[in-house]
Amino acid sequence: MAHLEIAAFVLSAFIWLMPMFLAFKMRKIRLLHPSFVVPGIMIYLAAVPLLYSLINGQRMLKTASLSFNTDFLFEPYLTLSLAGIFYHLGVKFSGISLIPEKQDQADYFAQLKTIRNAPGIAVFLGSVILLLLSTASILFIKSYGHIAKGFFWMLCLYRSFYALPILVLNQNRSFGVIFLLLTLPVTLFTTSKSAFMYLSISLFLFYQDRLLKVSKIGAVVAISCLLLTPVAVARYTKTAVGVDQGAIGASAWNTAIDRISHREYAFEAFACVNNTQEKEPLHWGAKTLQEFTHMIPSVLWPGKPVIVLDFPSTYLFADVRQTDEWVGYTGHIFSPLYLDFGIAGVCIGTMFIGLIYGSFYKWGRLKSIERGEAWPLILYHSFAVQTHWILGAGIAYGIPMAMGSITGVALSLFFALLFTPRR
Fold this sequence. Notes:
Layout lengths: L2 H23 L8 H23 L17 H20 L12 H6 L8 H25 L7 H7 L5 H8 L1 H17 L5 H13 L3 H4 L1 H12 L1 H13 L8 H12 L4 H11 L9 H10 L22 H4 L12 H38 L3 H10 L2 H32 L5
Helix pairs in contact: 1-2, 1-3, 2-3, 2-19, 3-17, 5-6, 5-7, 5-8, 5-19, 6-19, 7-8, 8-11, 9-11, 12-13, 14-17, 15-17, 15-19, 17-18, 18-19
């Protein structure tokens, strides 16, 4: 383990997490705040390859054979440090403080009704409709065999599933508990290894320590979801290899386990790109444009080509790949920005991310306070809970997931209004 890597990581963590540390010291904790949610996940993703190397003695993407570069993560961590400064600038440019203020308190928003004049049953039924649509989308995709071109939007719609319980809990505690209990069997239908975990994180992200006051059963469900995460991992493993453990060979089973243990390789994927980018010229927007092109629904572009977003297998040396065949890897959000514009692209792009999160949070907070309703901040929450996808899966996958989550919550609110009697 190179000391330079550790030093560079500590520097990046210090820069990204400084507002969070100051907020903890001042006891102004708001997990939804842009100074918490993005820096926390960004540093988590960056820490994983370092810890993996320390524990296992090798790289996640088998880059340990690059012995000529013992400080493999050093330059990527320095880039991350610079990006952290620009992220905080972006949040500041949005017009909010880097440290949560009095109006950011979780207690206040937990007390607001989702829709002020709507009956609890209306919000409950509106969310149930989305829950059923989410379940149908998962069952359809599973029966189809893969997430095919043209059906990706269904998976995006499913992402709203994690924010729906908050809509109902804020409107009516009793209906909220019933809805939470309904989500548990639905979660079993998913093939995501983190389905239970995301549901739990969503609840804690919005309510924080007030969750126990809002609903004791809700708190039990949230903790139970964390404990049930290994069940989701086991189901994901079986789905990954297509058949049951007892019916497959050892190599296939090991491949499935390897997939799970390597799922948080996103930052190391960026490191692979970072360590080989100097061998080719900058692409000046081509890679980023390709990611945005991938987002266009096929219904709007019937002849859209199937684009293979290959990060970083094309940037792994042949002696590491040991094959010329394409291997799919999820790309960190930094990868296309770095390939297109270098370090400057990463910094400007990260500042833009800070501006988006800050502006959306500012709008959600302000509108919730003005209207005395929680739904504007819940819309932001449905976006923020997808941060891991946005940062760790890149533009082409992360942004549609976030947009799908927001759309699903908005549809649920629309259905709730349909069930609300007119006065």
